[in-house]
Amino acid sequence: MVYRVVSLFRRVIQCGLRNSSGQKSHSRALQSLSLARIPKTFRGKTWSPVLIAFSVFGYSFGSGGKEDVSEKETSSMSSSVEELIPQSDQYFDENKYKEAYEVLLNHPERDSNVEVLWRIARAQYKAAKEMTNKTEKADMLRKGFEFIRRGLELDDSHYAVHKWYAVLLDAKSEQDGMWERVNQLHNVKHHMIRATECNPSDPTSWWILGCFEFGIADMSWYVMKLVQKILKEPPTGTYENALECFLKAENLQPMFYTTNHLWLGKCYTALKDPEKAKHHLNIAATTPVKNYDDKKCQEEALQLLKKL
To answer: What is the crossing angle of helices 159-175 and 185-198, to 10°?
Structure first.
């Protein structure tokens, strides 16, 4: 589907394409792209967009399904951690993100237990997405990134660590400007892929990777030109790969996340299969709303259905 870009965004793109004077000028052009100046598709989201003109993290992760925590992961925890982890998870599932991380913050094993670290990072990311104060939001995202960075240092084979590292790396990079954000694209995708490799059975990891694939495939030629001025070899992505990821996620856990059906609908629309697109968009539009993400998903699905 094609979305209009407002005139200011178009002028910035053209300026970036003409200018070859170095990083400083590109950085200014990129940093001038606020959310109010990019295509309507990506305005008003609560998630963290990756790239200039598309959002991978459009709907905050985690609210659609529980993390796949195995017995092996919990069996090695101390009794006190075993008591706090389910409590934190319950708070998270209830969208009580502040309580979800606060219950773990003062635990003596906090800095040495990867299960505690990634959960704190996850909850702080979600809490930050609901903040309206930009300074407080940026501070919370940076804190979350430090926790997940520590988790990665402790265990680079944990799928949840890689998943939330990808999410928080992009979110932190957004605070550092678009230049840094684009520069981190390969790292973001690397950790998305690692998450699926470490646990192929986790549906949200496949969903995240699918969003990334779709975002790259859906990028307009002029945005790609600008990205190529920063990255000689931008990440690749196709609608077919995105569809495969979304279908795999749905097969692993049907209805794990209503928004997955929204993205399936987008994929089938891009691949010129309107009947399948309608099927999935109808699911996204009619599933009962439980939280803000569901509400935004339903609104977007209804708008897309009108265009089919």
So the answer is: 160
Distance between the two ends of the chain, CA-based, in angstroms? 10
Q: How confident is the model at residue 33 (pLDDT cuts 50, 70, 90)?
A: very low
Taking a C-beta distance cutoff of 8 angstroms, is the pair 182, 227 a contact?
yes
Of residues 287, 265, 282, the one with CA closest to residue 274: 265
Determine how many CB atoms are found less than 10 A away from the CB of residue 86.
Answer: 11
Give the separation between CA 166 and CA 183, rounded to whole angstroms: 13
Quick one: CA dihedral 281, 285, 289, 292, positive or negative? Answer: positive
Residue whose tokens read 């195995």: 70
Per this entry, what is the length of the chain? 308
pTM of the model: 0.76
pLDDT band at 12 (very low <50, low <70, confident <90, very high): very low
pLDDT of residue 223: 84
